[in-house]
Task: structure prediction
Amino acid sequence: MFEEYIGKSQERTDMLQPQQAQFMAASLGQARSFGQGDALPPGWHWMYFLQAAPRDQLGRDGHSKRGDFLPPVTLPRRMWAGGRLWFHDDVLLGQQHLKRSTITKLEEKAGRHGPMALVTVTHDISKDDVLKLREEHDIVYLEDRKPGDPIADGPEPDDMEFSETFQSDSTLLFRYSALTFNGHRIHYDLDYCRQVEGYPGLLFHGPLTATLLLDLALRKIGMDQLKSFSFRAMAPIFHDEAITIGGRAEGDQLTLQAINSRGGVSMKAVVNQEA
Result:
């Protein structure tokens, strides 16, 4: 079903303004400044190449209605399931870049809690035909949660060699939604979370969790050693939770995890280093 969407592409250009990165640093509480020609930190590209869907083209969840670029999957709930990133060269601020997005995979299957659909979109960010960053973005569609459905805590954490705590709050979620022009209501509309999607609180953004893990990795290995990054969301994090992020070195890899306040792993990630 929807096979005709495989291979469908769209392109966007963006002049990567340093001010957006400055806002991101402020939101994360980082004392750093950005100017023309500076390298964009890994994971911060999600603030650029944004889709500006008109208000009347939004669905109930605040996302763009499906059927234009993404296939018209009828399952109501959408989640960022994970992704893989390959870093080829610095993405420099103050320069115009091109992002080409292509639907590369579409799979429908029965999950543990009902039918689900997985869509993978490959994004290539380039400058003057030179590839800078490749990303595979996994989107999962699910049925509505049923009353009484338990909230997943996530698997037991692995042992870690290093870790730190990050405190989530609703202001950060609002700011990140604004920076990424993300209208998904699960991140800012508490009544929608509780009454429609059955969650007790606002949900922490998956890519923001991934960004925190990437930032931790870079403080361990340095930007020059970063080759690729993969991550998988496993359980929700809510807006008032203290998040433990950490990991350990395993050869030329760092294995990372984000642990929610319920004690389970909400995201697992792997960083591969340059040989």
User: Anything to note?
Assistant: The longest strand covers residues 96-111. The radius of gyration is 18 Å. Residues 7 and 37 are 33 Å apart (CA to CA).
